[in-house]
Amino acid sequence: MAYLISVNAGTPTPTDHSTEPVTGIDKRPVEGAVLVLVPGPEGTAPTGIAGDVVCDLRVHGGPDKAVYAYAREDLDRWERELGRELTGGVFGENLTTSGLDVTGARIGERWRIGGEVLLEVASPRIPCRTFAGWLDEKGWIKRFTDQAEPGAYLRVLRPGTIRAGDPIEVVHSPGHDVTIGLAFRALTAEPALLPRLLAADELPERTKEKVRARLGQQLSQ
Questions:
Q1: What pTM, to 2 d.p., does this model score?
Q2: Which is it for the CA torsion 151, 14, 86, 4, positive or negative?
Q3: How many domains are contained in the chain?
Q4: Does the pLDDT value for residue 122 go beyond 70?
């Protein structure tokens, strides 16, 4: 059974690796029930997790990046490779999951968590220099990209409360085959996959615009 290991929220942490002096990537497990909300427009609102901190609203927060989920199974693999403990929230994820194939989740897939909250898979997380600086691992962006286990950003379709231990149920899977893993590879190391992304109507509009722009550049070359 898939379930939530932890719900994680961040506090402002000083950083030299962002346009902002602080980052909210340092997320820690929260005890008890946590309210999940539909955030405001992109660029104006933080994540959908009450109490979570987002410092750079240009690239984080908003409806299409309301919640970030990462699989404990993938963290465990990174623990073995890096030889260090990786606690829930260390990748900046709001939800640390167990028993759920986050990389294989399709864009538009819907997850019901507990009895109230309904989330929709929107897009993969693309690594940035803030993430690299936080992990402090040599060549981190390339290593993370090569592994292609990016975790998933999710929309909040139905708000409510969640807590560690809540079951996660996949209640809808769209008919296309555009997964988080495929979308990540298309947007990073394998641009030949870009045309396939347009089969996913649920892909964020801004991402679709980037895909179309890149495809146009390829055609003009």
A1: 0.94
A2: negative
A3: 1
A4: yes
